Amino acid sequence: MKTDFYVYLLLAGLYTVAPGQLVTSHHDPNEPKDHVHYAGEAIACLKLVPNNADFAFHFFNKVTLEEPNKNIFFSPVSISTAFAMLALGARSTTQTQILEGLAFNLTEIQEKEIHEGFHNLIHMLSHPESGVQLNMGSAIFLTEKLKPLKKFLDDAKALYQLETLTTNFNNPTEAEKQINDYIEKKTHGKITNLVKEMDPQTVMLLATFVFFRGNWEKPFKPENTEEREFFVDAETIVKVPMMYQTGRFDLYFDMELSCTVVRLHYNGSATAFLVLPAKGKMKQLEQALVKETIREWSDRLLQSKMRLYFPKFSISGSYEITNILSKMGIVDVFTDRADLSGITGAPELKVSKVVHKAALDVDERGTEAAAATAAEIMTMSLPPTIEFNRPFLMLIFDRDTNSTLFIGKIVNPTITS
Q: Record's Gene Ontology CC terms (predicted)?
């Protein structure tokens, strides 16, 4: 029998504090930045972009099938990063399944390139000059009895910024407090009391976290927020605080998929796609959500004057994703066939549980730097009104790396978890 160990994918809340392309951004050549180094990192990241996007939308499709009428929110880049790091310690079929499950074609990209790409992705996403606060990291909690190979720990630290901590899993209460306190601190209080009912047989717990805080490029004014109706389904109507502003926004009507796409920017390199399907068209949209769809929307967006209503809300998603990943081809690592001998030197471990948790807060606020005053001249004819008053999708991207940071489906914004 193999020893179980828990892999917890811990994701801090996305905290968006104000509105705002899945396109590569263009930097000012006069910026005081090491552009040669930066460009090298970007090239390494670019090799991962299509694979990470394929994984993101494949995972989204699986989650929506399992929870068709519920709020969904997760970070595909967090899941990909955690399992790429786990692949460092996997061998034979176990490793192949993990990397292919992450949508990598191993005849086109080498394992070494994958790890280097993730290393550069983590560095670029955490870059303080990106204009948003985005922190990524990983920690491994180990029982004193388990002695991982020095090469695994060294490689994981160098490539994935892994932090190693000793934990007494024989005392579950003590272990839970240590892990929960660590994650709460790393996620700025967004994720609390995540680990519960810890199995005393646990010998290792792997945690990854992402924390994102972005300020809308064009903040909503709180005084314009008002209670309005949100139509969850044919029988359910709820009241939500609806933010409002008039201005020029990137807009596209996708006639084929019967949806409206609005792109809002954050200060810095992050951007959001808000996608409102026509009534009864959510399922069709979910099935069509692939990277080529996002690219088409990016190419066709046009600046349009409009009145925008968007709900202020907080939701979270918590998933035990072992079953979903198994359906995506990552199978052996959860069974006695697991080969994680690259971690300890012997194939004695298997992954018993994968938990992913994410939280999303959306409100009006912006930064003081965005507090410029502009007088808008209104025409006599009112611009079109786009109101997100029924289930919609929200996708958050990083333009510097073309990474899909978060994907959400908001069915009922009044349900927080």
A: extracellular space
